[in-house]
Each structure stands twice: as structure tokens, then as C-alpha cells.
Amino acid sequence: MAAKNGHSVEDDAVEWFVLLRDASATDEDRERFLAWRDADPAHARAWGEIERLWSNLDHVSPQSLVLRGSGREDVSLLMPSHKPPPHVIGRGALSFGSKVSAAALVLCALLIWAWMPHSFADYRSGIGERRTVLLDDHSEIELGSATAIDVAFSPTHREVRLLEGEAFFTVAKDAARPFIVATAQGEIEVRGTAFNVKITDAVAVAVAEHSVSVTSAGGNTASVQQGKIVRFDRKAVSPPSNVDLDAIQAWRRDQLVFIDTPLEAVLADLRRYRVGRIDLLSAVAGQKRITAVFEKNRIDDALDTIAESLDLRVIRATSLFTALVAN
């Protein structure tokens, strides 16, 4: 819904939320907020959605701030669990509009930073980006969305540490120097081959050419042949099983393919392709299984399709906060 200022009502609600969470918010700001909220039922609904979505974010504790000084009813807001840092710029230096715009930009930056925990990796891709890295030995690594790697080569050693995300490796043959992909859960060793590695709660390795050797951090090993996939964590390696290589590599064609996949796992993948929070507020729906093909640059359409097929409702409070709830 559009507001009179050209913003959507949801955008206005987020701006109010950011402003009122700031330590420099005044009674006048609170009066203006109450006037805005009560001016239209749509404003109150948008505000309620912001509060509900934010209350589900795991990095905020529900300490309340009571809006006082208005002579009207109190309004409870969720506040951060830590004291904000002192402000360098004096309060009078910024207009109301400038302050909320700056605060909203800070909020966006923090969300993006949360999506990029390995910002100082040797190579990384942004959200929704694909990037190809050519190594000194002529091996190629195609990075999927929100992926980060570190590279360590020596005369006797080739190692790439996959820090997060998903990547397709095409490894040049070198009998004297094995090529190792290291993760927190274990490592993959090859001589010359092509394979896909994806990090979620575990590590999935799908082999497109030749074979690879997988070793978990706990010392369990497996040999994985072409057309097979294994998953491993620190303790164990699954038995190799057949895999649809076209589906596994669909991200390289800017598609996301899911075959009989639990909704929770689907959403975990979609989150990697979109800035902002996507929450599922239904434990039962999370176990429902999905078979679908989505375009990686149309994640909102994917959420709408999922909601329609599983009798869910999508709540959006700007592009930063999205939730799927049961009808």
C-alpha cells in the first residue's frame, strides 16, 4: 500500500521502528509516531507486523520501551539488549527524514554484514552473484551465491578452504600435488576432477567427473565416484548414493531445483539468494516436502508459490522482513 509521501506504508513502519529504537528518540518523535500509527488502520497493521517479525529475530531480546509523554496510551517496543554506542553527530544536525533514512541504511548494512561473515576471505561472491575464480594451477572454481573461499598453494600443496556457500570445482591434474578442499566438517581430496560442494548443516559433495576422496574431521572416509553424492559432518560420512547432476548444478544456470525437499531446507537455500530475513512461523509446514524449480532472481515469486501450494500466508514488512505463516 502506498503512503502519501510516496513510500509504502510498510516502508514508513520500518523507518519509525528504526527511529524509535535509537537512543536519541525524543518525546516529540514518539508523539509523531503515535499520530502516524493512529491516522489509518493500515498504519497500525503495518506496525503490528513489524513488531511481530522483529520479535522472532534471535539476536534481539524482548526488553520493552514505553513511549511516554504523549498523554495517551503507552506503546511497547522491542529494544536491543545492549546499550547503543554514543552518538558523534549532535541531534540537531539531522532532520527527521535524514535520520530515519540514515538509520534505515545502517540497518540494511547490518543485515548485509550478517549475510557476509567472511568479508575478508580471499575470494567471495555477493548475494545472488555467481563468480568464477581461476587459480594459478589453471583449476577453476565457480562460486555460487554468498560463497567465500581462502586459497593456500605451495610447491607441494594445493588447498582451498570453503568457508561458506556452494562452489563447483574443475581441478587441473597434478600428480605431485593433491588438491584439497577443506571445510570445518572435514575435507575432500582429488587429483584432477570436477565436483560440486555445498555447505549447510553438513557438507554435500556431488561428483561430476572421475572420483574424489572424502574424510570427515573424525577420520571417517569414503570414495565417491562420478554420478554419486555423499554428505558428511564432523563425525560421519553417508554412504554414496545416486544424484541428479543437472539438478545439483542448476544454480550454475541461475535456477534452484528442489526434488522432494523439506520446506525448511528449501528456505535455507532461498535465504542465500536474497537480502533480508525469511522466517517460517510454522514448525509443521517446515517438514512438508517440495518439488519445484525456481529462478534465483525471483525469490519473492518463489515464496508466493510456496505459500499458495502449502496453504501459507506471506507477510512482508519491506524487503528486509518476510515471514511465512499458517492461514
As a whole number of angstroms, the C-alpha radius of gyration is: 24 Å
Largest sheet: 7 strands, mixed
- Binned, the helix content reads 25-40%
Question: How many DSSP E strands?
Answer: 21
CATH architecture of the largest domain: Sandwich
Strand-residue proportion: 25-35%
pLDDT < 50 runs, ≥5 residues: 57-103
Q: What is the end-to-end distance?
A: 21 Å
Instruction: Please state how the strands of the largest beta sheet are arranged side by side.
Output: 3-6-7-9-10-13-14
- CATH top level class name of the largest domain: Mainly Beta
- Gross morphology is elongated
Number of helices, where a helix is a run of at least 4 consecutive DSSP H or I residues: 8
Instruction: Tell me the series of helices and strands, N- to C-terminal.
Output: HHHEEHEEEEEEEEEEEEEEHEHEHEHEE
CATH topology of the largest domain: Jelly Rolls
Mean pLDDT value: 80
How many discrete structural domains? 3
Structural class: alpha+beta
Question: How would you describe what is shown here?
Answer:
The structure is a single chain. The protein is 27% helix and 34% strand. With 327 residues, the chain is an alpha+beta fold. The model is unreliable at 57-103 (pLDDT under 50). It has three domains: 9-115, no CATH class; 123-247, Jelly Rolls (Sandwich); 254-326, Phage tail protein beta-alpha-beta fold (3-Layer(bab) Sandwich). Helix 1 (9-21) crosses helix 3 (41-55). Strand 9 and strand 10 form a beta hairpin. The strands form five sheets. The protein has a seven-stranded mixed β-sheet, with no helix packed on it. It has a seven-stranded antiparallel β-sheet with strand order 4-5-8-11-12-15-16, with no helix packed on it.
